[in-house]
Amino acid sequence: MLLRSTVVQPKVGDKVLILRPAYVAGKIGEVCGREILLEGQSGVRWLIQVDCENIMVSLTPREFERLTQENESL
User: How far apart are CA 1 and CA 49, in angstroms?
Assistant: First the structure.
């Protein structure tokens, strides 16, 4: 069973619940990594591959929630 968690920073491979934008809200996705800026620095946005769809979105941490396994400790 998956539970919502906003306490832990996401990492590559984490499953997330997408909150916004509306066209993908409520869908589950997988974190692919942070956006890389022109200077090679990590940005504040995360690249999320939407499950069961051929869509990748760039989201801020406020636009998704990390999902955890029920037995995973926070």
Answer: 21
